[in-house]
Every structure is written in C-alpha cells, then in structure tokens.
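ok so i was messing around last nite and threw this chain in just to see what happens. nothing serious, just curious
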Amino acid sequence: MARQLTTIQNEIFASISANENLVMLNSASKVAIYRLMIYVVAYSIWLHETFFDQHTAEINEKLANQKAGTLAWYRTKALDFQYGFDLIQDTDVFDVTGATDEEIETSKIIKYSAVNEAQDSSRVILKIAGETDGVLTDFDDPAQVEAIEAYINEIRVAGVQVTIINYKADQLYLNLQIKRDPLVLNEQGMSKQEGNYPVVEALQEFMKELDFNGELRLSALVDKLQLVPGVKDATVLSASSAWIDPALNGYGVAQPISISKIAESGYFEIVTFDNITYEV
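result:
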C-alpha cells in the first residue's frame, strides 16, 4: 500500500539527519534547494507506489472476474452475453467467427448487471437491464428472454440455481418541498433566466448517476437539490417505491422509504414530478 507523501519525506529527512556527512543540510526554509529536491524525490516514490497499488487492484479485479462461480464472474458473464450468437462447444465463450466489431457490440444487449446471494436459500440472484436512448429498460422480447435464460443455464456452475431478475424499473414516488429564491425560480420551479426547470433536471441527473443496484439515499438526493441555483433548501416530505410482484404480474402497493432503498429491479424511475411544491 502506497505510503503518504509526507511519510516518505519524513523518512528521507530522518536519514539525512542521521548521516554525519549531511548535517549541514539543516535549513528550515521551505524553498531550500535540498528540501525541494527531497520533495521531488518523495513525490516520484509516492507516484511509483501508487502505480503499484493500482496495478494490484486491476489484477485482483481481473482474477475475481475470471474465477468461475464467483459473484463477480456471474456479473461479467451476464455482460458478455451476445444475442444471436452461439457458444463454442463446452466453453462459456461465444463464437464470433466472421462477425464485425459493430455486430459484436450490437449483440451485447445486457448493459447493466448486479449479482447477490439469496438470504433464504442457496441461490444466485442476477439482476439485468438493457438500455434504450440512454434509459435503462427491461427485456420484454420473448426471444431475447429465452436466449438469456438459456445462456445463463448453460454457463452456470453445476448445482447452483440462478434466479434472473428482469423487471421494469421500480416506480419511485417523491413528495418534495423546495424553498426557492424568488429572484431565480418562479412558483412552478421554472428558471426566470433560462426557462427550464432546474429541480426536475437535477432529479433526472441524480437518477442517471445512481449505480445500477445502488442504494438510493434520500440524504444524497437532498444534497443534490441544494446545489441547484435558486434552491435555498429542500425537504423530502415523503418517498415510496413500488416494484414488480411476480404473483400479481404487475406492480405491488408502494412502500415507504425512510432512509434508503435498493431497487428490486436494480433501478428506479420517478413516476411524476407534479408532487414538488415551491415556496418562498
């Protein structure tokens, strides 16, 4: 692990102090030539050690993703899926003979994936999603769903059950109160200068920044809104979400969110922006 820059500098200073041939190097000036040289040398060493840390992290990540049966491996394999291609016999690698780079890239329809272990049984839970025009989507084409399920069943480790979560976005309901600057925003939240709706745009941006299967934290959402020009304060009066219930073949009743929530589908969609009030 890379040492702090100051730690490296102090070790060099200590070495100089202990060397009787270098005792004359004792100036306290921050711009003393020898101090500047020590900084340059220490920075070079620190940078070198940082590169080693980064290299180690990259190698560990590659090993985790390549080791069959790990959660990281399942995630990587889901993202490697190629619609319309077949696997090379007895492998988990697709046969792309004769395919162009564009065809290969287009065939990789799974854009997002997250993997967890079930708490109540020995199962791997694989959440997946596609993307259309920059928006996360589920797979509703029966042919695509069939191919994905066949692929996962083919590559999974023997004896391990894999449950694929391919749901539409969890519906997110937000009831927000915004204290506005009347010089900047009108009573509908429109910018008086630009004519846009900065709070709505900030919410949309926040949802895009949220990692797939990441934790939605209401405090982080408020922090985001408080950076919007014209917003003096922001309060979440209530928040709730609803997700697909397989037993109902549709959305269940929205459940309140108190502090944070991870989407059952892996991602959220704000249902409406009409529940935002702007007060002076």
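not much to say yet. The two ends are 51 Å apart (CA to CA).
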